[in-house]
Design brief:
By secondary structure, the protein is α/β, with parallel strands linked by helices. It has a domain of 197 residues: Alpha-Beta Barrel (TIM Barrel). The chain is built from eleven helices and eight strands. The strands form two sheets. Strands 2, 3, 4, 7 and 8 form a five-stranded parallel β-sheet that branches. The chain has a three-stranded parallel β-sheet with strand order 1-6-5. Strand 5, helix 8 and strand 6 form a beta-alpha-beta unit. The longest helix has 19 residues. The protein is globular.
């Protein structure tokens, strides 16, 4: 019954979503307007045209939006792909923070795409991390304004938590988020309805190495490599505490996944290449 309810709610989110390059102010404005929120001021048209990669970025955003819209027609959330392709998505929660530059350094050195779920309140202090994520082409999505327990809030409170973080990202030049990871993996019917109205897809996970508990570098590596499968979404953290073990574990995780024949992708790319099955089981309360 729960899945039927979620599928019905997902039908609210089928409307087409405006598209444009990740760095285009016009794209931010149209996306914010499409979400029923005030659009930020537009920059002069030459700003977007000055970047040679705009056409490629626009094409990618269009593909991502189409894939997200297609998934929203049958489910409001993603925990993993179908597994038809050997894709694995590495994700990082709770940043930006002091360890974000170190995480980015490893990913850039090893040429690994990844997805960062950003907490809005971290941006004023560690905005440089988000700017680096943006400039290097990483996927940047929403993790609420204050890492709130959404299930303890009403509809207005949940909307504010999601919208406030999205607005902070837009002000840094990040494309308006289409994805939310609920803190702690905690959500309810109000969350699903709120995301449907905002045309956002909820992103959960299928592999949790427990790096937030700091179990040791070897344990983090082993937990990821032992549990990763085609279509896996791996939960890790670049903020919220001491993430030195995560940084140290990353090279071995990346090398190990590649040796097993997996291709590392962003979550938006996973949704394009290997969308979730139509009959997903809901994840248990998590730790994201």
């Amino acid at each position: 019954m729960a899945l039927l309810v979620l599928a019905a709610l997902a039908a609210l989110a089928v409307a087409a979503w405006p598209s444009g390059p990740r760095a285009s102010p016009e794209a931010h404005a149209s996306r914010a307007a499409g979400a029923g929120t005030p659009a930020p001021p537009l920059a002069p048209p030459h700003v977007a045209q000055a970047h040679p990669g705009v056409s490629a970025a626009a094409a990618l955003i269009t593909r991502e939006n189409r894939a997200i819209n297609a998934v929203l027609r049958y489910t409001p959330f993603v925990a993993h792909g179908t597994g038809r392709r050997r894709d694995v998505a590495l994700t990082f929660d709770d940043g930006p923070g002091p360890y974000t530059p170190s995480v980015l350094h490893v990913l850039e050195r090893l040429h690994v795409p990844a997805t960062f779920f950003v907490v809005g309140q971290q941006v004023p202090t560690f905005g440089g991390g988000v700017r680096s994520e943006r400039s290097e082409g990483f996927a940047i999505e929403d993790h609420t304004e204050n890492h709130a327990w959404l299930i303890r809030l009403g509809a207005a409170g949940q909307h504010a938590q999601i919208q406030d973080a999205a607005a902070r990202l837009a002000r840094l030049g990040v494309a308006y988020p289409r994805m939310l990871r609920p803190p702690y993996g905690a959500f309810n019917a109000t969350t699903v309805k709120t995301l449907a109205r905002m045309r956002m897809l909820m992103i959960l996970w299928s592999v949790d190495p427990g790096d937030w508990r700091r179990p040791g570098v070897r344990a983090i590596v082993s937990n990821v490599l032992s549990n990763a499968r085609s279509g896996s979404i791996v939960l890790m953290h670049d903020g919220g505490g001491d993430r030195s073990q995560t940084v140290q574990a990353l090279p071995a995780i990346i090398t190990g996944l590649r040796r097993r024949g997996y291709r590392l992708v962003t979550v938006p790319q996973l949704v394009i290449d290997d969308p979730p099955p139509r009959h997903q089981s809901l994840a248990h309360l998590g730790s994201g």
